[in-house]
Specification:
Layout (H helix, E strand, L loop, with lengths): L13 E2 L15 E3 L2 E3 L6 E3 L2 H9 L6 E4 L22 H7 L3 E4 L5 H9 L3 E4 L6 H16 L3 H27 L8 E8 L2 E4 L5 H7 L4 E2 L11 H7 L3 E4 L2 H9 L7 H4 L3 E3 L10 H14 L7 H8 L19 H17 L15 H12 L15 H13 L10 H7 L19
Parallel strand pairs: 4-5, 4-6, 6-7, 8-10, 8-11, 11-12
Antiparallel strand pairs: 1-7, 2-3, 8-9
Helix pairs in contact: 4-5, 5-10
Length: 436
């Protein structure tokens, strides 16, 4: 079932599985990336790496995700079932999910990787991109794997361009807000690692993100990430972003850093390391958060933020599958709306999935909702039994709402079904020859 669950990679993709997916030859596939060869478009994937997930989601390929690691903690992907952590995932859960490709990071346990390979699952190992060029290459790499040499590559180009254009637009607004100042705002990003304070230095993805705030990173010309308190004292940044409470305690406990004007003036803000490292919708949300802190007048209201987020993810260009926006904040809102609407129908969606031959009140609530949306034309079929008519109605609903058509109501389908933007139909299923 096409999942409405709605992703910093390296320029080189390492093949962790020597298998290919059996193929077609329309120019899209096979796709060859380094030693990885995939002969047909993967329909189901598991994502263990949160950075990969951010890109996959931003490119609207999250409809392929059938599972994730607990490290993939983006709210808009929370509907996907967890399958262990990124280092030691549940291999059996991944196998049972029907995944054809697994996106992992460098922490994946070797035994887990080998077990997945033996099960015929391609494991693609991704690592952190440190430059915009590497990031662009990674978009194209993932695009080709998931969408093909032509379609996937074009979607990658569109998505990456949209990401950078969105960042440039936000930077322009921040720069305009600073136009009356005598000098540019200065910022720094601090984190605590291996018993010491570190700074986000030049040449990193985080440094690029700081630059899009319209401010100057005081570490822009510093190669060593160890914090030199005297250098930081001289730079005296206007704003300090820090990774976690340990970092803040280290700053506040230092006799020099604790007296910086940003610290004494309350101009410090926590931005987690995951927020500062991801390259899809999370990057835009993080950038908006930082700019809103520096320029409160530009801070979006919750309603405005939802509207902006809902427009960030590129629309699907697959003519046979309706476009969805699972990679956006709108997906999180949709889940909340689904919960509210589900209460009206007296159904609890949490971890709920329904299948043929189920016979209960949850099925009856689902049938009532399908009837209200026009997929079932006769209310006599609201029986509580999941038979052929229900399967046909669910399949038609999935088709109209951009979900993989299986006829089974998994949790993602039910969440969409009870959302306020669920699409109606004026062509109910043929009920003349089937009996619930």
């Amino acid at each position: 079932m096409r999942k409405i669950i709605t992703g910093i990679l390296c320029a080189a993709v390492l093949l962790c599985s020597a298998i290919g997916l059996a193929g077609c030859g329309d120019g899209e596939y096979p796709v060859q990336i380094a030693n990885l060869k995939i002969d047909r478009e993967p329909k189901s994937i598991v994502v263990l790496d949160p950075c990969s997930a951010d890109i996959i989601s931003y490119m609207s390929y999250d409809v392929k995700i059938v599972g994730r690691s607990s490290d993939v903690d983006q709210k808009y992907l929370s509907v996907a079932p967890t399958m262990g952590n990124a280092e030691r995932p549940s291999v059996q859960d991944i196998i049972d999910s029907g995944a054809e490709v697994v996106f992992a990071d460098q922490t994946l346990d070797g035994d887990s990787k080998q077990s997945l390979e033996k099960a015929g699952i391609a494991v693609v190992s991704m690592s952190v991109a440190e430059t915009p060029k590497q990031l662009e290459i990674n978009y194209h790499t993932i695009g080709k794997i998931l969408g093909g040499n032509i379609t996937g590559d074009e979607k990658a180009a569109t998505s990456y361009t949209k990401l950078i254009d969105s960042m440039e637009e936000m930077k322009d607004k921040a720069s305009a807000a600073s136009s009356g100042s005598e000098s540019l705002n200065t910022v720094c990003y601090l984190y605590y690692e291996n018993g010491g304070l570190r700074m986000m230095t030049s040449g990193t993805y985080g440094d690029m993100l700081l630059g899009y705030t319209g401010s100057v990173n005081v570490a822009v010309n510093i190669d060593e990430n160890n914090v030199d308190v005297n250098t930081l004292k001289v730079a005296n940044p206007n704003y300090i972003f820090y990774a976690d409470e340990d970092t803040l305690k280290a700053v506040q406990g230092d006799p020099v850093l604790s007296k910086l004007s940003a610290v004494t003036g309350g101009k410090t803000m926590q931005i987690s390391k995951s927020e500062i490292s991801r390259q899809g919708l999370t990057a835009l949300e993080t950038l908006e958060k930082m700019i809103g802190f520096i320029h409160p007048e530009l801070a979006a209201t919750p309603d405005e933020a939802a509207k902006v987020s809902a427009t960030e993810a590129p629309k699907s260009d697959n003519a046979t599958q309706p476009a969805t926006q699972p990679a956006t904040q709108a997906a999180t809102q949709a889940a909340a709306q689904s919960t509210s609407l589900a209460e009206k129908y007296k159904i609890d969606l949490k971890n709920l999935s329904l299948k043929q031959e189920d016979d209960n009140d949850d099925v009856k609530a689902m049938q009532q909702r399908l009837y209200d949306l026009g997929y079932v034309s006769d209310d006599e079929n609201i029986t509580g039994y999941y038979g052929e008519i229900s399967k046909k109605a669910v399949t038609e609903f999935q088709k109209n709402n951009g979900i993989k058509e299986t006829g089974e109501a998994d949790n993602a389908t039910l969440v969409k079904l009870f959302s306020s933007d669920a699409k109606k139909t004026d062509k109910p299923v043929d009920e003349s020859s089937d009996d619930e």
